[in-house]
Amino acid sequence: MWNEFKKFAFKGNVLDLAVGVIIGAAFGKIVSSLVDDIIMPIVGVLSFGEDFSTLTYKTIKYGAFVQSIVDFFITAFAIFIFIRIISRYRKKEEAKPAAPTPDVKEELLKEIRDLLKEQKQI
Fold this sequence. Notes:
Layout: H1 2-9, H2 12-46, H3 62-95, H4 104-121
């Protein structure tokens, strides 16, 4: 059972997923800070000091919902840009020519050549 778990846990897809989740969580904090600390104060200045999170209609706090929508779109756009950059990098890596692999026949011919050279020296 332990060996099966190790095979599962260290499979490439599982590790990629784990790294993606961890990086995504950290990136989410960066985006949240960007929105909360930089973009929303600018929006507040442009809207004459209005804080969206305090907007209400009777008991409905629609300002928090508006803030969530803004957060979502900024997060989605940031992830879109990040994925585009990664995709371009991967395409460049895939476009690099791989080292030519010698043909099996060529390898055998080289071995035969080397054996013949050894026989002539003896």
